[in-house]
Amino acid sequence: MKQKETAAVLMVLLAAACWGANGIFINILTAYGVNGTQMTLVRMASMAILTGIWLAAKNPAALKIDLRDLVWFVPAGALGLFMFGLFYTYSIQRVGMGTAAVLILCRPLSCYSASCSCMKSSPPARGCALCSACWAVR
Question: Left, alpha or beta for 2 (phi > 0: left; psi -120 to 50: alpha)?
């Protein structure tokens, strides 16, 4: 494998390990009395700060946005990511890591199915193949 391909594979493995460790830390922190909202807020705030610092160092132009776009970025980005993290955290606390992971993996399939039925369109072959792959992986 080339160096870039090896780095890409290692990054995917590292991301998977971090995502899996997320559930372990949720269970540990819950035992210490930290609630899901606190965990989600701290996780999101710390990653926003770290990402902002990294972008400022690597590509400061990426931080420039049009003020009109804040109307869409705040609700769609911050609130959407916060709610996703919050629901995932609470689902791990309520039903366990395995069930929460299966539910998240099934979500793209249900969104795709709902969008095809709401728009009254037949799904393309590529979409069916992707949904089948998602279903097989779960």
Answer: beta
What is the SS3 string spanning the chain? CCHHHHHHHHHHHHHHHHHHHHHHHHHHHHHCCCCHHHHHHHHHHHHHHHHHHHHHHHCHHHHCCCHHHHHHHHHHHHHHHHHHHHHHHHHHHHHCHHHHHHHHHHHHHHHHHHHHHHCCCCCCHHHHHHHHHHHHHC
pLDDT digits (tens, 9 = 90+) for 91-121: 888 888 888 877 777 776 667 677 777 777 6
Q: What is the pTM of this model?
A: 0.65
Query: Which amino acid is residue 44, in one-letter code?
Result: M
